[in-house]
Specification:
The structure holds two protein chains of two kinds. By secondary structure, chain A is an all-alpha fold. Chain A has six helices and no strands. Classes of the chains: A mainly alpha, B alpha/beta.
Chain lengths: ~210, ~250
């Protein structure tokens, strides 16, 4: 009985839901699209519950660190205080209030921008490190392509030909590579999807 | 002609043909009793060695599963990340160095926790399971990367392993390993992440190699069989593309 509940029922639900949603996409003119939409709605609702679970996970991990006086507990205190304070404006004034929007516009967005800028430096640093540790034709080619693409993006007077080189690099070898990647990813997705539908891949089941 | 080019027909044909290839291969290898040999991918090959090093040092691995969701277009990448986790978790629990797993989407959190909990149950030490080993860091890509940096600090973990959906922000996680010359491995399918990781490591699985994770880190035949099926389909696809190009060229 335990085996039926923990193995076969999840497989049955997953396979039936998967096939129904897939059929809804393949044959949208039939009544199946109604069931597909309903299933997708349920998935969104469950996803929202997962977010609550995620918040509790953050509270638990950092709360535990504070209680155990672990490394970086000061940061955990700041994180928890910030997390709890950020709940107040949307709960009291609503999600569209200027205070709530201000929190996003003046705190979260600039922080995101700062991190994005930091990514540029880490990328540059990693390219320099590669030249130091992994010298070879492929590394050299990588660096040359990066430099040409970057220079081609800058509006340098008298160097308009760089922009043409950049366009060719992005449009021909770049696009060919990305298409190859996408085809491979699509095949991998199809095969894994079939495994889930056939019940061979069952992350949702106990056995 | 229009009916021939109908996307639904193509999608159905691809699905049915892929299923057929997979089922035929599964039956074939089951009859033979032995699994197929698969090519080795460097990114996954030394994961077990790194796990051994983690046991020696008493510091776990950090497995970053990225911002992939369950239910979105990146579901399969997320499942591939979980396959890596499933392949390593039993040995890690047995060595008493359960990895720290970070996720950037809460839908992946219960699934990763479940994989870990089951491993503790299989090792008959369910009381040692600590759900906070799986951590949700933040719902945006940059917030996740910023949160993953301190988790992957070299003084706390042996190596960083990034498997799943990432963008260029993954370089923040790779950088923390680079600064201290610590090992790292990555398997990603997005072009931005590949570009960001290429200079940092030669232990990089790109594109569809991510979906070979199960075949590389576990001995399960279902993964090796599906890898062979993928190879067959890719070969047919390449032939079709080249054939179409030749026909178009000849036909003017």
């Amino acid at each position: 009985m335990r085996r039926i509940i923990r193995k076969w029922i999840p497989i049955f639900i997953a396979t039936t839901s998967g096939l129904l949603a897939l059929a809804g996409y393949l044959f949208p003119d039939t009544g199946l699209s109604v069931y597909r939409d309903r299933l997708v709605e349920w998935a969104v609702i469950i996803g929202a519950f997962a977010l609550i679970l995620g918040v509790f996970n953050v509270l638990r991990v950092h709360g535990q660190r504070i209680l155990e006086s672990g490394k970086g507990q000061v940061y955990s205190v700041v994180l928890l205080v910030a997390a709890l304070v950020s709940f107040v404006p949307p709960l009291v004034y609503g999600p569209t209030d200027s205070l709530t929007r201000g929190m996003v516009d003046y705190v979260i967005t600039p922080l995101g921008g700062a991190l994005a800028a930091l990514v540029v430096f880490t990328l540059t640093l990693s390219a320099v490190r590669m030249l130091r540790h992994r010298r070879g034709p492929s590394s050299l080619l990588f660096i040359v392509v990066v430099i040409l693409t970057l220079l081609g993006t800058t509006p340098l007077r008298g160097f308009e030909w760089l922009s043409e080189i950049r366009s060719w690099l992005v449009g021909v070898p770049g696009m060919a590579g990305v298409r190859g990647l996408l085809l491979g990813v699509a095949l991998g997705t199809v095969i894994t999807g079939i495994r889930v539908l056939l019940g061979s891949e069952r992350p949702h089941s106990e056995f | 002609m229009n009916e021939f080019l109908d996307p639904t027909t193509w999608a159905l044909a691809l699905l049915l043909f892929s299923t057929l290839v997979l089922v035929v291969l599964t039956i074939l290898y089951r009859r033979r009793g032995t699994g197929p040999d698969v090519r080795e991918i460097a990114a996954f090959q030394d994961l077990r060695d790194q796990l051994g090093r983690a046991a020696e040092r008493g510091k776990p691995l950090h497995i970053a599963l990225g911002n992939g969701t369950l239910g979105g277009s990146d579901t399969v990448s997320s499942l591939a990340g979980l396959q890596v986790l499933e392949g390593l978790i039993d040995a890690a629990v047995a060595y008493d160095v359960a990895p720290i797993i970070t996720v950037g989407d809460p839908t992946l959190l219960p699934l990763a926790q479940d994989v870990m909990r089951r491993a503790y149950e299989r090792n008959q030490i369910p009381e040692s399971y600590d759900s906070s080993q799986v951590r949700f860091l933040g719902p945006s890509a940059l917030a996740y990367a910023a949160g993953a940096v301190p988790v992957g600090a070299p003084e706390d973990v042996t190596a960083n392993v990034a498997v799943g959906t990432f963008g260029s922000e993954v370089s923040l996680v790779a950088d923390i390993s680079d600064q201290h010359g610590r090992p790292k491995a990555a398997a990603v399918d997005a072009a931005e992440a590949i570009g960001a990781l290429y200079p940092t490591t030669d232990r990089l699985a790109v594109g569809e190699e991510l979906y070979a994770a199960g075949a590389q880190v576990t001995d399960e035949k279902k993964y090796t069989t599906s890898l062979i099926a993928e190879d067959i389909l890719r070969f047919i696809l390449v032939l079709a593309i080249v054939g179409t190009a030749v026909v178009a060229l000849v036909g003017g």
